[in-house]
Amino acid sequence: MGARLKQYLWIAVLAGAAYFVLNNHIIFDGKQPYLLKKSSLHLHYTFYSISKKKPETVLQIDMLRKAGIGDLLVKLGRINEEEKSRIESKYEY
Fold it and tell me: Which residues of the chain have pLDDT under 50?
């Protein structure tokens, strides 16, 4: 009985970890990670580093832009609100 319960607990932990990975972008700026909620469950851009990328390059990616990476770039001081609006309007359809 205890072995079966332990097996179910491991399955639940693995399922929770899989859901976390499918549901969040993990953005790295140097060694510091930041979490952004994904707009849908997928594995695209789950792990992404912005440390040596220009803000415009990062904001070109639709999935990250929809998740709110522009707000993160503003919070980190990489761009200001006006630059964010200008770049986002350039790539929004």
Answer: none
